[in-house]
């Protein structure tokens, strides 16, 4: 068990901090960006992260982890990195930190693996991973809305998957990553999210946004993945 936890920790840190994945900017970073008939498909979603277990350490989203099927090297693994336009961070347990995610992808099938986040304090720097394992398809040129992901850290019970790796031991324990798990809910918040996206990103003016909501979170699948890694 300890070996498995260390392996998982090494895997997550490697994906985040080394060349094991391609760091990828999100769409519409510049207000002058335009969507044309030849543009790649863009997938939108909102994310809210909270920590109800260790409330002084609210997770801040670093990257959204996406992979191509049967990924073999870094070009098949994409880390969509948060930017200033994405972040709406309160650092309050009752509100959490929210993000506007815009993933521009080549047409094709992908796996939305999950969300890597961090929480820090004096001499403490911990990391979380909220698993999603959702199959997504980037269709023809256009803009697609995947929904809202709400991921909240709570105290772990029994053998539930952990909210992060076991190591580094002190940091992960203090922020609640090793002693916590994630409750994850996926919902259709298009009624509110559409207007928010349009107000933040001029490129969406006059562009049709098609709903393509992610399937419900499969906790059993996430548990099986955690146990296998």
List the helices and strands and how they pair.
Elements: H1 2-17, E1 22-24, E2 42-51, E3 60-67, E4 77-81, E5 87-89, E6 97-104, E7 108-121, E8 124-138, E9 143-155, H2 169-175, E10 180-187, H3 190-200, E11 209-211, H4 219-228
Parallel strand pairs: 1-4, 2-9, 9-11
Antiparallel strand pairs: 2-6, 3-4, 3-7, 5-6, 7-8, 9-10
Q: Could you explain how this protein is built, in words?
A:
The chain is an alpha/beta fold. It has one domain. It is 19% helix and 39% strand. It is built from four helices and eleven strands, in the order αβββββββββαβαβα. It has helices at residues 2-17, 169-175, 190-200, 219-228; strands at 22-24, 42-51, 60-67, 77-81, 87-89, 97-104, 108-121, 124-138, 143-155, 180-187, 209-211. The model is unreliable at 1-11 and 14-19 (pLDDT under 50).
Structural class: alpha/beta
The share of residues in extended strands comes to 35-45%
**Total beta strand runs:** 11
Low-confidence stretches: 1-11, 14-19
Sheet of most strands: 6 strands, mixed
Helix content: 10-25%
Q: Characterize the quaternary organization of these chains.
A: single chain
Q: Quick one: overall form?
A: globular
Q: How many individual helices?
A: 4
Mean pLDDT: 93
N- to C-terminal distance:
10 Å
């Amino acid at each position: 068990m300890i070996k498995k936890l260390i392996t998982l920790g090494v895997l997550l840190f490697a994906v985040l901090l080394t060349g094991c994945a391609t760091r990828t900017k999100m769409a519409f970073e510049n207000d002058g960006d335009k969507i044309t008939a030849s543009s790649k498909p863009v997938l939108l979603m909102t994310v809210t992260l909270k920590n109800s277990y260790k409330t002084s350490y609210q997770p801040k989203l670093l990257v959204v982890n996406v992979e191509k099927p049967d990924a073999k090297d870094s070009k098949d693994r994409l880390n969509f990195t948060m930017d200033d336009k994405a972040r709406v961070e309160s650092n309050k347990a009752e509100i959490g930190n929210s993000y506007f995610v815009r993933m521009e992808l080549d047409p094709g099938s992908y796996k939305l693996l999950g969300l890597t986040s961090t929480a820090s304090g004096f001499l403490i720097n911990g990391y979380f991973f909220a698993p999603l394992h959702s199959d997504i398809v980037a269709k023809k040129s256009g803009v697609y809305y995947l929904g809202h992901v709400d991921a909240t850290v709570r105290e772990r019970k029994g053998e539930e998957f952990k909210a992060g790796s076991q190591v580094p031991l002190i940091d992960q324990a203090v922020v609640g990553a090793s002693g916590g798990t994630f409750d994850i809910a996926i919902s259709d918040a298009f009624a509110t999210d559409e207007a928010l996206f349009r107000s933040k990103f001029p490129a969406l003016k006059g562009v049709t946004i098609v709903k393509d909501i992610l399937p419900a979170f499969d906790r059993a699948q996430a548990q099986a993945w955690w146990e296998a890694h």
